[in-house]
Amino acid sequence: MNEKQFIPILKETRRAIYAEFEKWSNATYRPKKMDDVNSKIYDAIHAIDELVREIQESEEESPMMKQYRELKAKHPDAILLFRCGDFYESWEDDAKVCAHVLGITLTENRSGKRMAGFPHHALDIYLPKLVRAGYRIAICDQLEAPKKVVKRGITNSKDHRIMRTTSLPISCWAAEDIPAIKGENLGYEALTNAELLSIIIGSGTQDCNAVETSRIILNQCGNNLAQLAKASPQDLATVRGLGKVKVSRILACMELGKRRESEPQDVKPELSTATRVYNHYRMRLCDLDHEEFWVSYLNTNYRLIKDVRISIGGITETAVDVRVIMREAVLCNATIIVCVHNHPSGRLSPSKYDDQLTTSIKNASQTMRIHFQDHVIVTDGAYYSYHKNGKI
Fold it and tell me: Which of 211, 238, 299, 357 is at a distance of 20 to 30 A from 94, taking alpha carbons?
């Protein structure tokens, strides 16, 4: 008995298996273990179909594969799902994508062609996964009853033909809607995760802009940044339009986020007393041969926001503009200020000008509702505090 004589036996076996499967699929009660059994039945039916096709193929390419290659040539940028009996099949590069995205088995036929397929009635389960991964899909259905050479074509049915709608390029958007400009104007905290990710990847594809591509990436990760951080380069590469460079950008940003979490907290010094203020400025001011006037801007917990040098003067005095002190306080949202200047001569007592300046700063602070904590004069080894001496 030659190979072709086995075909009727194989087909009869297939019909019997499929009939039994249909009976269980339509049953009201289904044992839990039937899901595993169904999976094995799929594999058995698929193996029988493939064996029959391989036996029918001659040394030359079969008419079915010629149909496939003709349709694939018309849709080179799409994943072609080719209907063969009760299965949708894909070959070569399309099969690799389907196997990875859908989690189905990648096999080879006798001629060495890679292939992957799934039952036709599971189309509604698998198709959305491919679409969410960003791929264009072309579905080839049988257009007539089975016979030796079946007529096939890309179906135009709304339910079966999935072609991603071309999205408007970001460069054509209103300026205030472009993520990078929106971030500059409103702050990056105002952007959605997809908009932030679009800035990282930079661009999308011809049919799908960067924001839409970012939405596909996030959707594939369950719209969960923690899952995105765990994604491998191979996982991200399944999204259409993501090459090695864009994948590297995403993974690098995720790694920076992880490292930021492990960094020690930058604890700012507390300057609630004159002694702490003196220790903070001593090494900076005690050895200078000229006067400098500094202001420490603090938050409500007396934690330092920033130090600002307001002016540099001569040996005996320095000119200070009170308006500059107040402006800096407003810009950094400070609620408390501490003024500090040095006396290169080593004299601890304040001058008449120091007293007048302190009064001016106190009056301006009261007007601006900013707490003027102290004015400290620093020398080499000692300090004078207006607050300690009851002058503020």
Answer: 211
